[in-house]
Amino acid sequence: LIFIMHLQEFVTVLVRDPRTQKEDSWHSYIDYEIFIHTNSMCFTRKTSCVRRRFREFVWLRQRLQSNAVLIQLPELPSKTPFFNMNNPHHVDHRRQGLQEFLEKILQDALLLSDSRLHLFLQTQLSPEDMEACVSGQTKYSVADAIHKFASLNRRFPIEDEERKKGKNDAYSDSE
Known about the structure:
Elements: E1 11-22, E2 28-38, E3 47-53, H1 54-67, H2 88-105, H3 109-112, H4 115-122, H5 127-134, H6 142-152, H7 158-164
Antiparallel strand pairs: 1-2, 2-3
Helix pairs in contact: 4-5, 4-6
């Protein structure tokens, strides 16, 4: 007898490990690690781990909404003027809201077909570089960008040269 198991597709997303990053001596922001584990055919990589900040989530939601006008997208946690990055409750509340946002997004087949979502979740490309990639203005495809990031596990491609020169490295583990 041959047993054929039909495995249910799954996508696990975790938003975790909030870290304060310094832009300059006056400005800081918090970024969050996004961990993906999946067996879904929709994803190029079955596991990935990237860091994103709140305003990149805002950008993603705006782009997804403009490409899927008929879908009511879930809300992001509200951007409050009273948000205090030194308050662990505020930071964790935002982290939970970002995770819930991604969990809902990843349940929608139409949204899963948007290349920006995959670049957001599986590369460290900036929003500008993601736009250039999906509009065909780069030498690399969406799949190339995801594979390259996974193999190097760092930013792609011009920033690699800047990094070698010792410029701003907000993605290292040392602070």
